[in-house]
Amino acid sequence: MNISLSGDKVRLRAVEPEDADLIHAWENDTAIWLVSSTLSPFSKAEIVEYIRSANRDIYTARQLRLMIETNENQSKTIGAIDLYDFDPYHLRAGVGILISGDENRRKGYATDALKVIINYCFNFLHLKQLYCSIPEGHDASIRLFESLGFMPCGRKHQWLRCTDRWIDELMFQLINSKF
Asked: In whole angstroms, what is the distance from residue 159 CA to residue 174 CA?
């Protein structure tokens, strides 16, 4: 079976050593630590080691990060999409996405990347479901996942600690209709 990792606007590719600076900047951006559950900065050495081990397959690592590149003539890397908590027995995985920079948002890149990863998960990995967790108030993320069929399935009350308050985490899932 031939599965494409390209959509209309983006293509997904493996992490390369040249991505170290970009990933280091993303992982150390405190503005996204809430959604990534990061509590402390990553060193450049940690990122390089992560990239070195990123070639393990999803069945071994139980996770997969793919870089998101635009399909334009001057393609550029604009984000990453992650599969995490991969469970080959129950045929499910969590999915998270990052589009970096305001100049890259609201252009359909996230929608296209999410369509590509759904196709990969359901038609190549043959997963039963994908799920995601979104902090309450992240309306753009909620709209993105709901636009592709993810349904609300739960709420963890006062689950995430912000600087001055606690917020709920919303759960969404997409069931593969082939099962």
From this structure: 22
